[in-house]
Amino acid sequence: DVDRHWFEKFASLLEQNIRGVQLGIYTVAFCGLGIALRSVRPFKKFTSPSQIPNTFFESNIKLNGKVISIDVTSKPLLLVDHYPIFCSKLRSVGPPLPVEIESVNVSQNGVSWLQTIIKGENIEFTLLKRNPDSVSCIVSMKNRNIAKHLVSLGFASVAPFNLQLRSLDIFTKYYAELLKAEERAEKKGAGMWITPYKKYSMTDILRKLQFLFGVIVAMPRSTIQLLKLKA
């Protein structure tokens, strides 16, 4: 009986310790999950550059959203309704996130194209750099690179190389593709690269007519009569 009593006491103590260990494991797991959720922010809707964690830019995270409008106050910005990773349908209402298409100078035709084709569509944007009022991104729609498409149409030119992003392989590859697209567009004479025909003003036309009329008036009478006979 004494041995049985000690055995039951030992088993009870062991069971309590096991429960304590399990509780500790569960606590650590929940804490880890909380930290992970805080860093990833799967339910967070981003409405300004300052809300996006630095780790998102360091890892070049790809986000999703819908283009609400195009801001042309200074340089064209896509105003995007960002979709959180989880529960995007239950996202809160807030101002759109300003997204800049990295490394392109968009022409007026390009702005019109964005307003016609991109506005109201879902896009993906890969984070590259945080600006004071926007985020610089590689933007794509239906697996099509928007910047490359604009440059190919001659609706945008390639901006100078951004030295702040020179260490990013994803950016250097992206920039090289833009340069190739611009070279092809320039050779084809697409968009802004089209060779304009020489346009004459009314003053130029009158000057030329005056010159021709003066030549005819200055001709000898015999030459004019000869031209009439040949006609």
TrEMBL record:
Pfam family, one: SNase
Segments crossing the lipid bilayer: 20-40
Highest rank taxon of the organism: Eukaryota
GO CC list: extracellular space
Database matches in InterPro entries: C3orf33-like (IPR042421), SNase_OB-fold_sf (IPR035437), Staphylococal_nuclease_OB-fold (IPR016071)
Entry keywords, A to Z: Membrane, Transmembrane, Transmembrane helix
Location of the TNase-like domain: 136-194
Protein's name according to its UniProt entry: TNase-like domain-containing protein
